[in-house]
């Protein structure tokens, strides 16, 4: 998350950063760049902004995750709970269960991400035809009663983003970008005056080095046939971002490029 597009995280000071110090290896001390600590703030901010109230007394699903929200909606301010069930961002289907304390009319907005290839909507199990432009909101205004459900699905297809400076590409699927699966060797690292003041067993530093090749180029003749999406069966792990728990893998043909090696700045 904090050092994307790099094959290793080492303690060298020759990396292409403004400050010349240990910038890539994992460290609990101030020699490390602030990304390591700041990146975690994105998760609570994301959770805090899943749902938004609207100026017309409704609710908007602004971001998606398994969640529960309770708010006062409608002109009478009726307390209503909505439970969202989903494995987003790994899967594109979302199910909402609406439970108002009494029947109430209010608008429900659903954000359609810009990457969505299509959008399928059902209300109480019945398909609803609706114009759903990518990057816009779908508005559903109706009289909601206890037990109403809204189910929708975003079409997730593999796509490529091309970077003009290098001609390299990023493999995307839905809201996520994927990287080549690289084996990891973790090595404890301690250096500098700060380490002499800390308990190295409780507060270790780490370098991470690749144990498998990373210098591959994709072989793509037909984009639609170039990738195979493999979904692991079973419930989503509590920590789906780890290498061993990743619920989605994308398989593709690639060729190792022998001349592609780390540069002087280890990137």
From TrEMBL:
Residues 59-156 form the Non-reducing end beta-L-arabinofuranosidase-like GH127 middle domain. InterPro entries: Beta-AFase-like, Beta-AFase-like_GH127_middle. Pfam families: Glyco_hydro127M (PF20736). This is Non-reducing end beta-L-arabinofuranosidase-like GH127 middle domain-containing protein.
């Amino acid at each position: 998350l904090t050092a994307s597009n790099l094959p290793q995280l080492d303690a060298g000071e020759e990396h292409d950063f403004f400050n010349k110090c240990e910038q890539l290896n994992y460290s609990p001390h101030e020699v490390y760049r602030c990304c390591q600590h700041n990146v975690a703030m994105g998760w609570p901010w994301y959770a805090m902004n899943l749902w938004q109230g609207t100026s017309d007394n409704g609710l908007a699903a602004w971001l998606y995750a398994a969640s529960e929200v309770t708010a006062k909606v409608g002109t009478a301010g009726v307390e209503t709970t909505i439970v969202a069930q989903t494995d987003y961002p790994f899967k594109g289907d979302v199910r909402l269960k609406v439970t108002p304390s009494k029947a109430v009319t209010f608008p429900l907005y659903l954000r359609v991400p810009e990457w969505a290839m299509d959008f399928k909507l059902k209300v109480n199990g019945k398909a609803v035809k609706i114009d759903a432009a990518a990057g816009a909101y779908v508005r559903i205004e109706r009289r909601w009663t206890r037990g109403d459900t809204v189910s929708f699905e975003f079409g997730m297809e593999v796509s490529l983003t091309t970077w003009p400076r290098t001609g390299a590409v990023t493999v995307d699927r839905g809201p996520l970008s994927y990287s080549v699966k690289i084996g990891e060797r973790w090595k404890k690292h301690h250096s500098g005056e700060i380490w002499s003041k800390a308990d190295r067993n409780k507060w270790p530093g780490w370098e991470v080095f690749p144990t498998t090749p990373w210098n591959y180029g994709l072989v793509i003749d037909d984009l639609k046939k170039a990738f195979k999406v493999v979904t692991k069966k079973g419930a989503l792990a509590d920590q789906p971002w780890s290498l061993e728990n990743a619920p989605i893998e994308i398989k593709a043909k690639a060729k190792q490029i022998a001349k592609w090696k780390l540069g002087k700045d280890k990137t």
